[in-house]
User: Fold these one by one.
Assistant:
Number 1:
Amino acid sequence: MTLAFFTLCALDLLDGITPNTTEAERVGYIGWIYRCQHPDGGFRGFTGGDVGNSRSEDNQHWDPANIAATYFALANLAILGDDLARVKSTECLRWLKRLQLQDGTFGEAVGLGGVVQGGRDMRFCYCAAAIRWILAGGNSEEEDIDVDKMLKFFEASQTYEGGFANGPFHEAHGTPTSAFAAG
């Protein structure tokens, strides 16, 4: 999903999607992205993790949706001109809420036993804010993420020189600062 995102972004910036792809190809790309949609909300990074009808309590942790893949999938669909009508918005927003951790950050995926796993830094907060905005425009009627808690994490992650770190008491870097600024 990530490679598709950067490829589509580059083509889009160069006004190259329509001249360099056919309508059938774009429909095919959109279809592939929707095949990555997870039944519990969010999107997988690729179709290879989909266990399909064999999915069970014992193996579902091998088939997780991923917060970055979900952001990239939604952005890819928008770039390709999809109306997002087939996105399971309610399930996705509920899944997103499950990924929020006590400190306001977001994990990457729901793993074994329903435990949120993966990184917990500004990048995933950016992905969460973007997913929420794309699907609900900031006006979610579903159970919403705790925006105040996320903002407190942002405040605690700002360093003395004005930049942002991946978390409180860490060194400021360009990536978390740009993720914060974009979010």
Note: The first strand starts at residue 109 and ends at 110.
Number 2:
Amino acid sequence: MQRPAFTNPPPAHSPPLHHPVPQHVSTVPMMRSPPPPVPMQQQSGSYGNPYHPQAPQGAPPAAMHQPYGNFLNDPTAQMGYQVGKTAFNAGQEYMEQNLNRYLNVSALKHYFNVSNSYVLNKIFLVLFPWRHKPWSRKQAMSASGQESIFLPPREDMNSPDMYIPLMSLVTYILISTTLAGIRGAFHPEILGLTATTAIAIVVFEILGLKLGCYLLNISNESQLLDLVAYSGYKFVGIIATLVIGEIVNGGRGTGGWVGWTVFTYTFLANAFFLLRSLKYVLLPESTGDNTRGALTVARSQRNRRTQFLFVYSYVIQFIFMWILSR
């Protein structure tokens, strides 16, 4: 199908084109370059934060943060601070009063007053006590000057402490579980079983000592804490037995003649150490102002106290150290 041809000729001139003419003239602002940078001091004074009020010239820095700068000066905040401080002091005083009923905290701090040199020398003394002299504890006058007190472990090598027994107990538990893992016999329950056995032995030992002291009529102001401290020194020898026996026997434990040799030495060293150290607790010296009857009673009980000290240092310690070394 074809398109029909145009019959009329095309116009000689095309009509002129008309462009739209704007009716409202708008002015375009002149673009200027930004101002040069200024120092920080001038900038802080010229270009402030539009969302916060500008600080006046020469005002202190605290005036720039009015919502939070005066928080501590607010009476309500001061009242809340005083109430919280009073409640904290009252709670601390209440805990100290109730705790002192069962344990003398100030006396307990005495047993942790140690130094690095004391710890090293004390461990050496526990393992090699044969030639140590003297064994008596040092004393000094108190601040009031009315009574004599024992020097802390930092100043007296013969003073008992609780730092070494506590750290030895924790080290014994970790070493026992580690050696069990090296032998391939580790299981999660062994950690709790080892800790329970060690703590139970210490508690049973202290109860036995307190019972013996009660039956023998032995009294001392710091007797309980001293006995707790001395009962923990056995772990030093036990740790040495476990480590040396494991290394020499090639991972087969403390059995064999090597293990028994190390165990025998550490047991004898610990027994000798306790025998000489506990002498001032279980066998206190009689003072010169005692009556003749009191001296007679002390002499009659001295043999029994000596026997009790020997049984505790050798027989009981052998049983407990053998249980803990297996």
Note: The CA atoms of residues 198 and 324 lie 7 Å apart.
Number 3:
Amino acid sequence: MEQDIPKCVLVFAGISVVTYVFAASLLQYAYGDVVGTLTMIESDKQRMYLDAETPTDSKEPSDSSDTDEKALLIERQGVLVKQRMITSSICSASRHLRERAGPFSRLRGFGVYLVYQLSAAYFSIVLSNTILDISKPSTPFVAGFFANIIVSSTIMVWTHVVISEPSSKLWFRRMREVGFKTRVKVIPATAIWAFAQQLHVYLPFTLYRSLNIDINDLKLDKAGALKLAAVPLLAMALWVLVVVPARVALTRVQASLLPDSYQSIVPFDRSFGGKVVSEANGGTGILRFVDAWKSFDWHARRRLLKVYLSVIAIQVGLAIAFVTVYLAGCTLLFKFTGHFETRWEVVTLPDA
């Protein structure tokens, strides 16, 4: 006789799932989005130069101490010092943020991030149900593309909030400071990123439809395994080769538009190696999309890959912990409610 699942187990399951989704989302935001964004803009060749023209004593250094002699040489000639990158690891980036912006700094910009996500979803729904033909399979992707372009200024303000020092100005006040020219400048880069993002979803979706994959009737042979693996492999390849470069380039383009009145929370070259020329000097005042990716060298790409792999490891650990706690909790609740009993039945075999 079948027994209903106890209500306490259902409540526990619901709370566990909501808690897991909430924790996983916060971890993804704190390390994948915030630390990842800082990794995309931190200069890879930060150096500290001591002024070579510092007034010094004209006397020759004494032989009493090698340390004094080295110190005098530093004062006279200057020294080139390579600094450890702040985003070289998640731990160092988190420690830097905590020291500069407080204990909740890893969630900086979360408010404007929610506004961006909700606004993009709203405009996507409106476009799908008004201007575009909702019956076409491509409509959600086209709507998502244009929705991200509409909220491009919000995405840029989020990037500026994340990469800059703490400010007393709330994000919507910073939004009003963004001029019309700046809003227009960031649209092309946002459009390329939005296209890459939708392509990352649309192509695997199209492949899934073309292969006519039916999980229930799928044969576990070589052909079935290839069909089953083709969609996630394509999605992963597009994410690595298309989405990540587009996101890096967009973030660096947005960072090039950070107003001079705001200091960055991690050091980065605002001119991006001289590729950004201000409008006062006859330039555009913005980093070109192609230059944004080219100036992101291989050492910086390895740091970003390290951050993403660390986030994946954290998410896997969280998932394992969740499954362990969930199964243990359900087992205990079933035992306490008497629904976890082993029953033996005697089966009489017929005579041969």
Note: The radius of gyration is 28 Å.
Number 4:
Amino acid sequence: MISRHVVFRALRPSTPTLVGTTTQRRLLTSPPKTTRPEDAKASLQNVNANKSKASSASSEDESSLPDKVRAMMRRIPHPLTVITAQSVHSSLPSGLLVSSFNTITLSPSPYVSLNLKLPSSTYLEIQQSQTFVASAISSVQLARDFLLDKKDRRFPIALRNNVRDGDSRLKSGRGGIWWMRCQYMERESVQVADHVVVIGKVTETGFYSNDSRDAGSAHGSPLIYSEGKYRVAGEAIQ
């Protein structure tokens, strides 16, 4: 009988196969580096500094945005309109000059809109009386009268000189061109930030006399405002 000797050998642990570049193998086999406290602090300071710069740049953009929009809109001509409302508590009306008056629709009924900055005494009178009058004007002096501060002692005098008692329309010969009497649409009006968009339904219209307070007002041409100056419409291009 043939005797067979079986030898058992201890198996050595196999060496794992490394895959990848030398740099990758080095990263896999290198022990993790420890971060020093001072390095971590410096890194955090850099992150905070970058956030602060980004926040500052964003704030500067936001603060300059209104100025940019204002500069752009100043280049667009806006019609000047006097808005007047009769007080329910006194015979003295209230009024102001706006450059935001415009039509919304003409059908089935004509609706108009205008923007008023709050607080506004004229808006209070509009709310109480539920009506207002919009007047296109040709007089620079009339425009200046309605730009007077309400606390200016000349303002009540300007109102009495320019507005009819108990009617809210301008007096004849004061520089008005046409007028629209409007019903205040309270439910349709809306406040946006520090302004209110007033919506009105036109109920009556008419024209003022053609005489004007200003000799240089282009014989009753409606005043417009652009680039910080009063103007009138020029020659038609087409």
Note: The CA atoms of residues 19 and 25 lie 7 Å apart.
